[in-house]
Amino acid sequence: MEVIRFSPEFLSPLTQFYNLLTAEVPNCHPVKEDEFALAMQGVSGHTDDNDDDLEEETAFVVLQNDSVQAFVHVGFFTDGDDEDRVGVIQFLGYKRGERNAGQKVLEKAETYLKTHNVSRIIAFTKMYRYNFYGYDYTQLSDKLDHIHALFGINEYRRYHAQIFMEWKDYIVEPAHTDLPVTLNVDWKEGRGKLPNCFIKAYIDNNEVGQCDNVSCGQYSSQPDLQDWFYTHWIGVEDDFQGQGIGKYLLQYTLHEMHKVGYRHASLSTDSDNNRALLFYSNLGYRAVDWTYAYKKDISDSLYQF
């Protein structure tokens, strides 16, 4: 079984492989070959917007009868705090039942990263992701359980988890608060059919909260995503938490987004943020995916070749 360095001639079978692999992953939708080519720009010497601090990238594939059995996209960067080199597995996948192919590309990735003297490897982090793989903060979906298992048997450990939630066909009443809150609403055109919306809340001219929302068309051109939006960020200043401002902001957002044509809502939160999970689930959102980032520390002994 041969592991081959990626070249543009593999782009078509690799796109097919990716689409089949992620078919059951929430928030993942089929991509076209030219879209996948953009994700591979760093491999060919160009810089992608999401990973412009990677010093070098490459990718490896395992082919059988012109069909991709496994694939890995790796790179590395230098940590500004301690000058350590950190390896990045931006994406890894293998066909179910082809564990050996998955093991081969993972070993190839590690060998490549070790030659560049990385101290640790991180995988599927929210900082290094394909634009079309889920939404912002998407890590390795628990629907790709065979890839989780491969990481586990190779001594990778989970170090962060993000829960993704949806509210299909949502209906909310107009928002109300007794607090003297004023809102600044900024609508901006984006890649989606409907506009993005950025809202800031003020009390006595002081910003106390924020809610940023983008069309899910930002991540995919699929027609059935155009009436979905993703709440990229919602937050309330510490001194003003517990007063209902967050609920007011989100209800106001849902109501205003519905008025311009959105019908379905999504968001995400850290898995250990039980307060947020309780709030969202009681409001009407339901968890659809748990995603995880992985890491592996590289001991000195692993540098022996």
3D structure, described in words:
The protein is α+β, with helices and mostly antiparallel strands. It folds into two domains: 3-161 and 293-298, Gcn5-related N-acetyltransferase (GNAT) (Aminopeptidase, 3-Layer(aba) Sandwich), CATH 3.40.630; 182-262, 3-Layer(aba) Sandwich (Aminopeptidase). It is 23% helix and 35% strand. It has six helices and 13 strands. It has helices at 11-21, 33-39, 99-115, 145-153, 245-259, 274-283, and strands spanning 3-5, 56-64, 67-78, 85-94, 118-123, 140-141, 157-167, 182-188, 196-203, 206-215, 228-236, 264-270, 286-297. Strands 1, 2, 3, 4, 5, 6, 7, 8, 9, 10, 11, 12 and 13 form a 13-stranded mixed beta sheet that branches. Mean pLDDT is 92; it is low at 300-305.
What's the helix and strand layout?
Elements: E1 3-5, H1 11-21, H2 33-39, E2 56-64, E3 67-78, E4 85-94, H3 99-115, E5 118-123, E6 140-141, H4 145-153, E7 157-167, E8 182-188, E9 196-203, E10 206-215, E11 228-236, H5 245-259, E12 264-270, H6 274-283, E13 286-297
Parallel strand pairs: 4-5, 11-12
Antiparallel strand pairs: 1-2, 2-3, 3-4, 5-13, 6-13, 7-12, 7-13, 8-9, 9-10, 10-11
Helix content: 10-25%
- Average of pLDDT: 92
Counting DSSP E segments of at least 2 residues, the number of strands comes to: 13
Query: How would a textbook summarize the main sheet?
Result: 13 strands, mixed
User: Which oligomerization state do the chains in this entry correspond to?
Assistant: single chain
Shape: elongated
Determine the N-to-C terminus distance.
21 Å
Low-confidence regions: 300-305
Hey, roughly how much beta strand do the residues contain? 25-35%
Tell me the CATH architecture of the largest domain: 3-Layer(aba) Sandwich
CATH class value of the largest domain? Alpha Beta
Number of domain units:
2
The Cα radius of gyration reads: 21 Å
Question: What's the CATH H-level homologous superfamily of the largest domain?
Answer: Gcn5-related N-acetyltransferase (GNAT)
CATH topology description of the largest domain:
Aminopeptidase
The number of helical runs is 6
Q: SSE order, as H and E?
A: EHHEEEHEEHEEEEEHEHE
Which structural class should the secondary elements be placed in? alpha+beta
